[in-house]
Amino acid sequence: MPNPAREVQRAVRAAMRELDVSGAVTVVLADDLTVRRLNHLHRGRNKPTNVLTFEYAPADYAPTDSGSGIWLWGGDIILAFATVEREARAAGRSVRNHMMHLLVHGVLHLSGYDHHHAGDARAMEMEESRILGRMGIPNPWKHRGGREGGAAR
């Protein structure tokens, strides 16, 4: 990937535009050890995962001096780049497209989407496919070459 920073910006901005949200998103391309430690610390799972998201605040409402307030939207998306690369190769996908999928997945998490229940997972997958399709990236949920793709659950 010649310019990963440009690709990261493209994916995050496209997802934010499609979801009609604005705010700050920080993306970190980390190693597996870092992501494993964060996953253990914050989710109790002592293993790397492909993507972690952390919403800003715990409270996402910030009062202003005038007494009114503004809603804050945004957060951190942490990708375990070695895991992303392994998963892409195992699924016969490009690392770029898999990374773009996981970035869109992260923005959806920051926007309140989740995949803990079948109906929620299906809604999230459909939204990922829609956003990625608008970006010209193939649907990661379509069966290809005997393997299924997608974000970790």
Automatic annotation (TrEMBL):
Keywords: Cytoplasm, Endonuclease, Hydrolase, Metal-binding, Nuclease, Ribosome biogenesis, rRNA processing, Zinc. Binds 1 zinc ion. The keyword Acetylation does not apply. It is found in: Cytoplasm. Its EC number is 3.1.-.-. Zn(2+) binds at H105, H109, H115. It is an enzyme of class 3 (hydrolase). InterPro entries: MetalPrtase_cat_dom_sf_prd, YbeY, YbeY_CS. Pfam families: YbeY. Its cofactor is Zn(2+). The keyword Transcription regulation does not apply. NCBIfam families: rRNA maturation RNase YbeY. Belongs to the endoribonuclease YbeY family. Single strand-specific metallo-endoribonuclease involved in late-stage 70S ribosome quality control and in maturation of the 3' terminus of the 16S rRNA. HAMAP family: Endoribonucl_YbeY (MF_00009). This is Endoribonuclease YbeY. It comes from Novacetimonas hansenii (Komagataeibacter hansenii). The lineage of its organism: Bacteria, Pseudomonadati, Pseudomonadota, Alphaproteobacteria, Acetobacterales. The gene is ybeY.
